[in-house]
Amino acid sequence: xxxxxxxxxxxxxxxxxxxxxxxxxxxxxxxxxxxxxxxxxxxxxxxxxxxxxxxxxxxxxxxxxxxxxxxxxxxxxxxxxxxxxxxxxxxxxxxxxxxxxxxxxxxxxxxxxxxxxxxxxxxxxxxxxxxxxxxxxxxxxxxxxxxxxxxxxxxxxxxxxxxxxxxxxxxxxxxxxxxxxxxxxxxxxxxxxxxxxxxxxxxxxxxxxxxxxxxxxxxxxxxxxxxxxxxxxxxxxxxxxxxxxxxxxxxxxxxxxxxxxxxxxxxxxxxxxxxxxxxxxxxxxxxxxxxxxxxxxxxxxxxxxxxxxxxxxxxxxxxxxxxxxxxxxxxxxxxxxxxxxxxxxxxxxxxxxxxxxxxxxxxxxxxxxxxxxxxxxxxxxxxxxxxxxxxxxxxxxxxxxxxxxxxxxxxxxxxxxxxxxxxxxxxxxxxxxxxxxxxxxxxxxxxxxxxxxxxxxxxxxxxxxxxxxxxxxxxxxxxxxxxxxxxxxxxxxxxxxxxxxxxxxxxxxxxx
Length: 512
Ligand SMILES: N[C@@H](CCOP(=O)(O)O)C(=O)O
Fold this sequence. Notes:
Layout: E1 7-12, E2 15-19, E3 21-24, E4 33-34, H1 35-41, E5 50-52, H2 70-81, H3 88-95, E6 116-119, H4 129-133, H5 136-147, E7 152-158, H6 163-171, E8 177-184, H7 190-197, E9 204-209, H8 213-224, H9 227-235, E10 238-242, H10 248-251, H11 256-267, E11 277-282, H12 287-297, E12 302-309, H13 314-321, E13 323-325, H14 346-353, H15 358-371, E14 373-375, H16 378-387, E15 388-392, H17 395-409, H18 415-431, E16 437-441, H19 449-456, H20 464-472, H21 481-484, E17 495-497, H22 502-510
Parallel strand pairs: 6-16, 7-8, 7-10, 8-9, 9-17, 11-12, 11-16, 12-15
Antiparallel strand pairs: 1-2, 3-4, 3-5, 13-14
Helix pairs in contact: 1-5, 2-3, 2-11, 3-5, 6-7, 17-18, 17-19, 19-20
This protein binds the ligand N[C@@H](CCOP(=O)(O)O)C(=O)O.
């Protein structure tokens, strides 16, 4: 493996250890930090996002991905980005162990209705967030040991349904951590809510916000840069970190499943080594699709990255015009995890395609905050459109897509996956692009049984646990442990606040 850019900094025994530094997307003058520090901090002090100072340029063969277990692929990817984190192999084994209901961790389906589905929901909370949030606690622990950081880590998280539960599960009873999750009170599915409130642990806190996801995430970002609060925390030996894809420790593990998908296609001889594969990614905060962009930059033969949105189609318009404009109605939809108008990770993409122009990124992000919109230079927009395609599906269109795929092959997909599937087909029809396409299946259909049933069942649809049983009748496979657990979880208590009260509740929780 060749690391032609990372700097060799020290040598332990016969093995050379490389160090990868991380810098903010916004401040060209800021001192870079180590990978360990970037994971511990979560967000850069200037409000920007950490990116690696040099992008890894490994040389590798694609052939081994056909036979390697997922754990090996994940370890390889993590080592490219966090070469200075010691003891990664153990962490990876713990992250991808018996808590997964499929040994492949992210199995690729057969071709259904024209496309493949990369099933990212075989972890304990039934959504793709587990792939990274079973790993992040491990990475954080390694980073803390390595840096000697002994303050308590307060994981502040905003969720539109899936990240929160996966973060609670990942950090459940992890020593030296507390997790505070904020979710939009009226913006997640009944099963998502029951699942989130069902996560028990002395270090876990769930707070409903009487606002939408954007308000929760924006306030979380403000709390990160609140100096008075940081001092209060420091006095108690505490500091914030993030479980959202703003944290590189959350984002980087997601790159691995693009390699795993490619390996599975190769292994089945559906493609030849080097063939380009398109990926359709349902996305709200842009983390999942950015991981695909990073996979392409690492040399994986990725063709188009198809960015799929729901009715909150701010990203579709951005890719079409180069103008990002969040001044529009926020829709609460039947694909709630994607109900987002401020896509945090787009900032990392802009940093990359503008040739690391941190001043430009800072200016655009400032404009977004003050005016609600920005337009990227024409050259930046042009670069984006060579790699990305974009489209959206309405709530009715995604339901029709669930039915189409089910009718084709009795294959059940969740509403978010259906958004990706619909937009992939739309793209294929408009462009005639016949390359193999992998749709990221981001959540289990059992998290949204009402919407799925409504699409496929002629009978009246029930809700919650009853709907899960009703949906199971359409499924030849037995219920997985993660779904069965939904029937036994007991709801924990939660607080409810307005967005303006989020700081006060954080202080109250942390003061015990
Ligand atoms: N879609 C998420 C919200 C934020 O995304 P993240 O990937 O940055 O955590 C959710 O379901 O909670």
